[in-house]
Write a structure and sequence with these properties.
This protein is mostly beta strands. The chain is built from 3 helices and 13 strands; from the N terminus they run ββββαβββββαββββα.
Length: 232
């Protein structure tokens, strides 16, 4: 089965690739588009974080693993600290597969490309693409990841291992990411019903205190993306 990959690039150009099967040969389309995987048919306590461990509404926590992907984690932290992700959307949501966001092109934001930290690019990274794992979208060019990332919905995403740079995991609030699936979606450029018909927007993305093992953590607070759904 073919797995389509895509994500928008900042300069308005699109790069697109198709993964065939799990580790099968790659084909390149004539239209340019980016790549997250293809579906299988300042550091301070964040304002509003509950002292009791309960998260504010519409919030989830991503724990980063620099021991697995140090370049990717540093890049993500720097973008968070710059406020890069504030106001950006999850533009591709595929049930049973993943939610992809962080494209800054429509907001006039650009991010530099980084080295792809995965086995196919000569980098040891054993963080598997299981449910809740966060990984970088890219084009078919190995070192093309920049700002776009995706969150896996299913353990079946492990077919991406070795070809995408997994670097973190949603360790709290995964139910919020699951709720993205309740937003109606139209046909996307990937050929799936993946394009939300109303915005699924990151209101605030900030660094918070490290976890007990010293891993950096990111708090993502969403706008009320369910408001439009409730009124339909």
């Amino acid at each position: 089965m073919k797995h389509r990959i895509f994500a928008a690039l900042t300069a308005g150009l699109l790069l697109c690739g198709i993964l065939t099967g799990c580790g099968g040969k790659q084909e390149t389309s004539t239209t340019q588009q980016t790549a997250a995987p293809a579906a299988q048919n300042g550091e301070a306590q964040a304002e509003g974080e509950a002292q009791t461990g309960e998260l504010p509404e519409n919030t989830f926590i991503i724990t980063l693993y620099p021991d697995k992907a140090p370049i990717t984690c540093e890049n993500f932290e720097n973008l968070v600290q710059e406020g890069f992700y504030d106001g950006l959307n999850f533009h591709r949501i595929v049930e049973g597969f993943m939610a992809q966001g962080g494209d800054g092109s429509s907001a006039g934001k650009e991010a530099a490309s980084i080295k792809g930290e995965f086995a196919a690019n000569g980098v040891q990274n054993d963080l598997s693409h299981t449910r809740g794992v966060v990984s970088m979208a890219r084009t078919q060019v190995m070192d093309s990841a920049s700002s776009q990332f995706f969150i896996c919905y299913s353990d079946s995403c492990t077919f991406l291992d070795g070809n995408y740079a997994a670097f973190g995991k949603v360790t709290e609030g995964m139910e919020v990411v699951d709720q993205f699936l309740e937003v109606p979606r139209a046909m996307g450029m990937d050929g799936d019903m993946s394009a939300p018909t109303s915005p699924v927007t990151m209101k605030s993305v900030v660094m918070i205190e490290d976890d007990a093992d010293g891993n950096p953590r990111v708090q993502v607070t969403m706008d009320d993306f369910m408001a439009g759904v409730k009124t339909e």
